[in-house]
Amino acid sequence: MLLGVVAGVLLTVMVMTGLWWPQRDVTYRSSAPSAVVYADESAHFLALVHEHTLSGRHSYRMVIGRDPTPSYGHWVDVDAALGAKGIESTTWTESGVRVRFPTGHEIFVPARSFLYGR
To answer: Which of 36, 46, 49, 55 is most buried per CB count within 10 Å?
Structure first.
């Protein structure tokens, strides 16, 4: 009987941990158009990543770089209120990328921040 209770508690803890394990979800993706050529001559990508932590905290970060998966690049923290509303548009230019949110807020990231694999 005691063994069954202990097994049940352990199973419950494992299931709850699995449900609350930190997660990363990409909620927006953009890539620089081929007409925009940067000094490092690489394609560049932007992703908005929603991160969930074990404590229930939600945060949003943008990653901009040469990797199409949001694992490496220049990271920019985004206010949770902005990130939750998503990104309205991105405008890529030789000088950088401008990100617009539905709230009217904008973030400009200069190209020097994400060139050459940063």
So the answer is: 46
Token digits of residue 8: 């049940």
Tell me the C-alpha distance between 85 and 38, whole Å: 30
Q: Which domain range does residue 36 map to?
A: 22-117
**Average pLDDT, stretch 65-90?**
93
Q: Give the residue carrying structure tokens 């940063």.
A: 118
Number of domain units in the chain: 1
* Average pLDDT across the chain, whole number: 88
What is each CA distance from 8 to 30, 62, 65, 112, in whole angstroms? 45, 40, 46, 54
46 in a structural domain: yes
